[in-house]
Amino acid sequence: MQYDLRTDPTHGTKVHIVGSRQNRPVLANNVDAQSCPFCVGGLEAPGHYDVRLFPNRWPAMPDERCDVLLYSPDHTASWSSMAVDHIEKIVALWAERTAEQSLRDDVACVFIFENRGAELGATIEHPHGQIYAFDHMPIRSGERLSWKPPSQSDLVVTGNDHWSCAVPPASAYPVALEMWPTSRVSDLMSMSVDQRQGLATLLNDVMSRLDRLFSSPLPYMLWINQRDFSSTVEPSHWLHIEIVSPWRGKNLMRYIAAAEVGTGEYFNPMKPESLAAQLAGRAE
Questions:
Q1: Residue 176: CB partners within 8 Å, gap ≥ 6?
Q2: What are the pLDDT digits (tens) for 148-183?
Q3: d(C-alpha 33, C-alpha 61), whole Å
Q4: Sign of dihedral through CA atoms 25, 30, 34, 39?
Q5: The CATH classification of domain 16-280, taken from the options 3.30.428.10, 3.40.1260.20, 3.30.750.24, 3.40.640.10
Q6: Is the pTM of this model over 0.90?
Q7: What is the torsional sign of CA 281, 147, 202, 221?
Q8: Which of 66, 157, 190, 262 could be joined to 56 by an S-S link, Cβ 3.0–4.6 Å?
Q9: Can you give the residue ranges of every domain in the chain?
């Protein structure tokens, strides 16, 4: 593959130059279940499956660091439509692959993520996520190692005995959520059976709320923040999940503008406390 890892001389930002990814397929707007490579019988799913993981044909990094994870054989499935026991299988595969990749001497960060919607660059509509294994700790992921659960009560959205969900107090995105286990663990494979079930239940609940927010399937980005696997220090990180969307209304994008990109300061048109109230079903 064509690959070159560079560092911006001013900001220290790492940029992966991956020329081979320029030719990957973009199918989000013109593919149906009959021609989808992720549906049963397709290029990446020749046989029946519940959940499936395989190497990305157009990896963003070399050395088998990039995987694709199919959530369901159903082309139209979503977190809100899938049964909780099926979501548990996805969580289990997250943990299994994290355990495998974290054993590598050259892996520091196992980053699990999803882009939903063509608006956010999802090139195939079929429900799926990805896993990148970085040989270093990305800057923002490293900063999140010091994250602690928020305590502001009017930002709480929902939760269960084992997981909680709230709106962050100062996100650059109009719609943003954080989810975390009520008892601290630092990575996915350290979760108990009850915590895995609690996460599956909360994902189903939260995604249903997000799709009801604007009465339309919400485009979003989801990612999981785990510990630094290259560190020999006892981890104190609190595993947590972030979900963000650029929508500020149905089909209404909130675009990041020059004054924000250029300065690194952002202007959010949605009050976090109001968003939390809407998602929680509280009167604001």
A1: 167, 168, 242, 243, 244, 245, 272, 275
A2: 999 999 999 999 999 999 999 999 999 999 999 999
A3: 29
A4: positive
A5: 3.30.428.10
A6: yes
A7: positive
A8: 66
A9: 16-280
